[in-house]
């Protein structure tokens, strides 16, 4: 029998305003995530990276949509598709109806949204391109967040953004987040025209008059925060001109930042929309993270531990942090420096020192005199080989023991699993510091700097 949610949904803003059928959430979840290698290669795509030891980043958007009364949800998938499907399934657990667009290669931000929103009516840009099998969305507006964005942009702010978007008659409304000036080269930034100011997290709103893609000398630090409200009419007009996500094609048209925004502003030489569509921006002064780097991932988890990110964790909340079930620990014999998260079914031995900012995922054994701080240790996940073969969590236990041996010191690390020993770090070093540790198919550990990025293009 289905889950009856009528009483819950009737109090949500989308239902109260009678617009629930006009809104659809389209999560962009098909990026390759190459900057997060090696951990995004064999285990999880970025939208599934756990926060607080267990909650996937993309789950936050699904939950917020349902809390707003929006139950029509879709995602486009590319890398490690099964991990997303197996977690969300049909969406009923979360109160949503989730559909998926499977892609064997990314189709860009424009392609990802068009294929989710237009379904079988979306343009096929390549002869062998995998297309969706669902009908086009019959409503008016899609909400399109990136699956690797983490923010406290909650239900009330979604409602406010929707109201501004509709009141202004915008075809495309972009959330904007101020970033440190020194990071302008990493993000697309925006210049607003005559704007309106207001109190609260949505402090400024106005027409976008210029979009500057990743320029260290941009006169603005208002960053494209990758949360969009888009009218279906605009997508229907743009989709026929969409190309494959290949910068080498003639007159490429597949990316919001590179192509759509310049076109809407009259600055793309080879394409102009069939009519003038309003591009609007709304400044958001709340917490916002783009998981573009491994350091960003650690920073987000620190914000979770500081309760700055609004996140419901399935653990017992305590004055020092969170504790899972089935964990063996004698608090009289260990040192906890808050904040700390210890997951389910862990063993914490005498003399261990955890924190500050230590997240110990499910199933870890932390031996005597181990020190862990400013680090995230993942619970055990399935492993996917280069050939696409899945090695289950149960099978992985044979090569991934999930243990930190006596005397090990870990700081500023992301650790997928394995057996961590003092022998992993140089004899001149006093700790395992600023490393990403992966466990390969045969159980061998792969250690790289937390700042390591593979060569090649990112999509």
Q: Any idea how many domains? A: 2
Point out poorly predicted stretches.
Answer: none
Please state the average pLDDT score.
95
**CATH class placement of the largest domain:** Alpha Beta
Secondary-structure map with pairings?
Elements: H1 6-9, H2 13-16, E1 23-29, H3 39-42, E2 50-51, E3 55-56, H4 57-68, E4 72-77, H5 81-88, E5 97-102, H6 108-118, E6 141-145, E7 149-151, H7 155-168, E8 172-178, E9 188-192, E10 196-197, E11 202-213, E12 222-231, H8 232-238, H9 256-264, E13 279-284, E14 288-290, H10 294-305, E15 316-318, E16 321-323, E17 328-329, E18 335-336, E19 340-342, E20 347-348, E21 353-354, E22 358-360, E23 365-366, E24 371-373, E25 375-377, E26 383-384, E27 390-391, H11 393-396, E28 403-404, E29 409-411, E30 414-415, E31 419-420, E32 432-433, E33 435-439, E34 445-449
Parallel strand pairs: 1-4, 1-6, 4-5, 8-13, 16-19, 17-20, 18-21, 19-22, 20-23, 21-24, 22-25, 23-28, 24-29, 25-30, 28-31, 29-32, 30-33
Antiparallel strand pairs: 2-3, 6-12, 7-14, 8-12, 9-11, 10-11, 11-13, 15-16, 26-27, 33-34
